[in-house]
Amino acid sequence: MFAELLLDQRLLKSVDKMGFEKPTPVQQQAIPLALEGRDLLVSAATGSGKTAAFLLPILQGMIKNPPPKEGTRALVIVPTRELARQIGKECEKLASYCGIKVGVITGGQEFKVQRALLRRDPEILIGTPGRMLELVKEGSTLFTNLEYLVLDEADRLFEMGFDEDVLAIIAQCNEARQTMLLSATLPGGVRRLMQVLNNPARVMVNDGREEHSSIRQQYVLADDDKHKEKLLLWLLENETFERALVFANTRDMATHLSGVMRYRGQRAGYLHGEVKQDVRNSTTTAFRDGKIKVLIASDVASRGLDVKGIDLVINFDMARKGDDYVHRIGRTGRAGETGLAVALIAPNEWNLKASIERYLNIKMEARKVKEFPGHYKGPKKVKASGKAATTNKRKKKD
Ligand code: AMP
Questions:
Q1: FRET label pair with 170: which of 276, 309, 317, 339, CA 20 to 30 Å apart?
Q2: Taking Cα atoms as reference points, which of 151, 128, 189, 127 lies closest to residue 323?
Q3: pLDDT at 36 exceeding the cut of 60
Q4: Residue spans per domain, the chain
């Protein structure tokens, strides 16, 4: 129960209103440690409830302690605009009875509007590193009284090359702050960012790899992209789902597939790095509202997309890394729902699939679509080596 975490009544009220019945494992472990004032290193997969795990103790601290004379009290740095907006919304809901102001700062918005927002002194700022750094440079006192710093999806911040910007922002922050770093996985590259933590308590709900037992993971062998298109369409026409998310590795493929799917009568849309912010927002909203049923996206565009009821994820192109695969399929099966993930595997993707299976310690279920059988049957079975075969033959002779 949330009440056992000794949270303020106003926070309990918002949690209740949001329909959270009991804390998720990461919330159960992280919230008491954060309330003690410890720095935290949290390894939890997307969908685990990690956002409320860091927001609730921050809000609790803000309610309890008197505010500083000026400046932002909490800064949350995230890798993508979508994730920033998503966290902003969750934060507004959690803070709705506390009168705490929340601001979201990302690229793709006007500087004028953002400066005005900063003048209103939001207690909690959520944003992406590039724009945040530019604004910090303009007014370096912004974070001198900072009480809380959160680096969310630190693996992504590192992978997207944001670590320099993040460290430059941190250099402008109050040193006497509490810092929390969250990451689905903890690859070596995140270590540089981890150095900003002061004797952190570690919360390892999982290492990001085993969270997805509620998701059925399958693969279908495919000859090439043309064959994949047929399989994709067949899956969309034959699976029962509310919302499907399809991953393509290139912008051109995402756009192309969306066109093909629309032509074939699917309510499809696409998101990738070159889609303008306002179009991105309207596409995400249409997907959330059910006007779009099939969203074709690249990895970056899908980050932070927390749309309820995604029950089918199709990897049209296989993820290039285990961590990406985890993030992709993490879009489904969120907070107790179940989901289906299907990967279309062409000959040149077999090794990738095998290495992802090894990395995640899983075995994807083979699935055949008999309407579109294809020629590719998987890698040739390796026969017993020549030596062993000879030995066997000899044995037989003997
Ligand atoms: P996150 O891992 O923070 O992206 O959260 C994934 C989803 O779970 C979001 O839609 C949250 O609103 C939801 N959520 C977070 N905490 C809980 C909880 N204790 N009970 C139910 N849903 C939750």
A1: 276
A2: 189
A3: yes
A4: 2-204, 215-366
